[in-house]
């Protein structure tokens, strides 16, 4: 059963400018496993973190570091939640995450489904 759906879109050039203007933002938004990726991948992951929050009902106080996007051995993206995000997901009965990432024409998009 679908418990939540989230989608987010990020303008890659605008996102890159924000990272250049505020370098500390990279540490506030991305885990050690994410922050070295190219900008278009970071933009897609930022969109995914926002989409995860939306799928959880956008509870206040979530940290972007509590949702991490990793890729499995085939390159398929996977979501891992920790901290308050994991607590909220558990409370909602989320058992599985589905995620799709894309970037093209200067835009990154992420679509997330929380399944129970």
UniProtKB/TrEMBL annotation:
A GO MF term: holo-[acyl-carrier-protein] synthase activity
Keyword match Kinase: no
Record EC number: 2.7.8.7
4'-phosphopantetheinyl transferase domain span: 4-101
Listed name of the protein: Holo-[acyl-carrier-protein] synthase
Catalytically driven reaction(s): apo-[ACP] + CoA = holo-[ACP] + adenosine 3',5'-bisphosphate + H(+)
Keyword Transferase on entry: yes
Organism of origin: Nonomuraea pusilla
Cofactor needs: Mg(2+)
Family listed: Belongs to the P-Pant transferase superfamily. AcpS family.
Binding of Mg(2+), residues: 8, 50
């Amino acid at each position: 059963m679908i418990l939540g759906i989230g989608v987010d879109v990020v303008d890659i050039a605008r996102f890159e400018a924000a990272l250049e203007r505020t370098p500390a933002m990279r540490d506030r938004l991305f885990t050690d496993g994410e922050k070295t990726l190219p900008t278009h991948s970071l933009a897609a992951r930022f969109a995914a973190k926002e989409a995860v929050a939306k799928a959880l009902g956008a509870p206040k106080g979530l940290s972007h570091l509590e949702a991490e996007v990793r890729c499995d051995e085939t390159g398929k993206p996977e979501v891992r939640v920790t901290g308050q995000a994991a607590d909220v997901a558990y409370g909602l009965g989320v058992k599985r995450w589905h995620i799709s990432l894309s970037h093209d024409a200067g835009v990154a998009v992420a679509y997330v489904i929380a399944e129970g």
